[in-house]
Specification:
Length: 151
């Protein structure tokens, strides 16, 4: 299922830089454009998600810090991955659930799709489905975020 889900997401992505979310176990991934990532982040905040911050993953050979410094949700490259903790992801997913039930969500999706140079019901439905997929992913536990080249 992972590979099918990943393939379906990549079919809608333009070549270039994407945001890749993955479990530390490496058994599950979520991929989206940077613009969609920023939209998902901002939508969560709009609907009540109080982000607790990300932490950098220790580099090879480094020990994890006892009290790591919290950072933003802007992804770095694969050598600069950040971790979103399970409870933060669950709260983010809950905020997105509220967003999907909002009477304003259709207009918000339409505006985002149009700002990306797309239009139409299919593009809006695809973004709505992506929100659902991300919510399910975030609800299942901690994950890392990083940029990567989709080519």
């Amino acid at each position: 299922m992972r590979s099918q889900q990943r393939t379906n997401q990549q079919e809608t992505l333009q070549p270039g830089i994407v945001v890749e979310l993955s479990r530390t176990s490496g058994d599950e991934q979520f991929i989206c454009s940077l613009a969609d990532w920023n939209f998902i982040r901002d939508l969560g905040r709009t609907f009540g998600w109080n982000a607790t911050g990300t932490t950098y993953l220790p580099q090879h050979g480094e020990r994890a810090r006892l009290n790591p410094i919290k950072h933003d949700y802007q992804p770095g490259d694969s050598q600069d991955s950040k971790r979103v903790e399970a409870d933060d992801g669950a709260r983010w997913a809950a905020a997105l659930h509220r967003a999907r039930r909002s009477p304003f969500i259709a207009g918000m999706l339409r505006t985002h799709v149009q700002l990306q140079g797309a239009s139409g019901t299919i593009a809006e439905q695809s973004l709505h489905a992506q929100l659902q997929t991300f919510s399910e992913f975030a609800r299942r536990g901690a994950f890392t975020i990083a940029l990567r080249d989709s080519q």
